[in-house]
Amino acid sequence: MAEIPGPPADQDGAEAVVAAGGLHNYQLKLHAEYGPVVRFPLPGVDQAVSVADPVLLEATAKINKRPDKLFEFLAPLQESGNLQTIPAEEHIPWRRVMLSVLAGRPSHEAHFARFTALASELADRWAERAADGPIALQHDLAELSLRMICHYALGSGLESEETAGRVVAAFETVLTEYLERQYQGDEKDRRRADEALAYLRSVVDGVLEAHRARGVTDGEAERSDLVAALSAAGQSPARIRDTVLMTMLAAHHTTGVAISWTLYLLAKHPEAAERAAAEVDRVLGDRAVPEYADLKRLTYLDMVVRETMRLYPPGPYGAREATEDITLGEYTVPAGTTIFYPFWAVHLNPEYWPDPEKFDPERFTPEASAGRPRLAYIPFGIGPRSCEGSTLAMVEAELVLAILLKRFRFELAPGQTVTPIERFVLWAKEDIRMNLTPRETARA
Ligand code: HEM
Q1: Which among 61, 160, 408, 419 is most buried, taking Cβ atoms within 10 Å?
Q2: Average pLDDT, rounded, for the chain
């Protein structure tokens, strides 16, 4: 068996990442230089093996273990063990509950009207503010996504936009601090982070209190009632609290940035924007908002969202720990090795994505997709630890985009540089500011 290639083992991982201009660029450089399987010094875990080939990734797709050290920064948010890294025997029943709550299409449909109302409220606010100058998309869309998941899975807790905004800001404070603490050894503002975490816990307590006060609900609302489902499955109160917090975290900024990157790419590609808007007009007719059944007719919009998440995957990386020796082509990866998933670099692998940097939604027509390896496109991750919220996220994103594209034309505010930064999710550093013009086809 061949030795896995890579840079010198004593290279300083953190320095190499900075020199390359960030982890993603480092990944692209490593894979261009050494091939699809690379051993490299990953800050926090010593050596890791990165795999950028979708066919080789198949050999890792059943692993149900994440490396503890890489996800340590999330541990302070959890009281019952880090949900990112709990062992398979605890994870399997927990995942079953999460999927029953998050992936049920009847539940998506049952909540669609409320999602629509929340998105329309945001569009109304934007319409009022549009004349005053550019709108910061990412911030508002993260807040909207948070309100949607809270309505969907938690029943209540974040009815007001102000609370939602405070929660989004608190998560940002906590993640920035804990990530810096783990990867740079800095404790910039411990007190602020502790206060933000205490605030988040108080919001979770409020959600649980409201849930107790409401009692048992019926019908579709119950099927998506996360707290009731976890409790019925015998999960401990601490695990339930942790799951509520992690659900709020996992669902809001990911979906928020997926929508804002989509609007960004459409603004940069006016022909695609026109085509997407024309499709929305055709499917909605003179209605201002879609119905659930309309989503499957918005096929171009779906391709646009998928292409956006290829170029700007909201979760750009993942990782597993090999639980046994694994064969990756000509290499053997010993048990215990950290396997790094460079989702973003996989999405730019030129072997499967010709002219990979080009925005081209046509890559996702059924014809173009046929024959492409299943793991060439993995914005929601891989296997038993993949995202439980993937189908819900697509419903939310496409609904919100349909409403927004029906109502507004989006133009990037001049003079801004949009810089993607990797801070757990792939975020635009200074947000994305757009000028909005009402479209004539939209009803007031
Ligand atoms: C566009 C939106 C979203 C994207 C791109 C996204 C992406 C991801 C990715 C890449 C992972 C890691 C997967 C892996 O390690 O293989 C993940 C995990 C997860 N996501 Fe999402 N996500 C999104 C929205 C959501 C939503 C709406 C929820 C709802 C609660 C959610 C809940 C979760 C959970 C609970 C996990 C942990 C999975 C586990 O450890 O079993 N995500 N997501």
Answers
A1: 408
A2: 92
State the DSSP code for 337: P
213's CB contacts (< 8 A; 6+ apart) are none
Looking at residue 390, its pLDDT comes to 98
Q: Kindly give the distance from the C-alpha atom of residue 250 to the centroid of ligand 1, in angstroms, as a whole number.
A: 6
How far apart CA 149 and CA 225 sit, in angstroms, is: 11
Decide whether any atom of ligand 1 lies within 6 Å of the 306 Cβ.
no
What are the angstrom distances between the C-alpha of 95 and each of 29, 60, 75, 100, 316? 35, 19, 19, 8, 21
Which range, of 108-117, 141-150, 182-191, 380-389, averages the lowest pLDDT? 182-191
- The stretches of 380-442 forming alpha helices (DSSP H) are 390-407
pLDDT digits (tens, 9 = 90+) for 326-362: 999 999 999 999 999 999 999 999 999 999 999 999 9
**CA atoms within a 13 Å half-sphere pointing along the CA-CB vector of 59:** 19
User: Is residue 84 domain-resident?
Assistant: yes
Q: Check residue 444 and give its pLDDT.
A: 44
Banded model confidence at residue 418, pLDDT cuts 50, 70, 90: very high
For residue 389, report the distance from its CA to the centre of ligand 1, in Å: 6
Query: In this structure, are residues 428 and 420 in contact, taking their beta carbons and an 8 Å threshold?
Result: yes
Residue nearest to atom 1 of ligand 1 (CA): 255
Q: Which residues contact 58 (CB under 8 A, 6 or more apart)?
A: 373, 374, 375
Domain of residue 78, residue span: 62-314+372-438
pLDDT in tens, 218-260: 555 578 999 999 999 999 999 999 999 999 999 999 999 999 9
**Is pLDDT at 186 greater than 80 in this prediction?**
no
Residue 185 lies in a domain: yes
d(CA 436, CA 411): 6
Q: Which residues is 412 bridged to in the sheet?
A: 434
149 lines ligand 1 (CB under 6 A): yes
Q: Which amino acid is at 252?
A: H
Q: Is residue 282 in some structural domain?
A: yes
Per-residue pLDDT of 110-127, as tens digits, reads 999 999 999 999 999 999
pLDDT confidence of residue 13: 84
Indicate whether 36 belongs to any domain: no
**Nearest alpha carbon, ligand 1 atom 39:** 385
Count structural domains, the chain: 1
For ligand 1, what atom is nearest to the CA of residue 247? 30
Tell me the CA distances in angstroms from 373 to 57, 81, 358, one per residue in order. 10, 35, 20
The CATH number that applies at residue 78 is 1.10.630.10
Q: Assign 3-class secondary structure to 291-314.
A: CHHHHHHCHHHHHHHHHHHHHCCC
- Would you state the structure tokens that stand for residue 71, as one six-digit string? 């996800």
Binding positions:
387
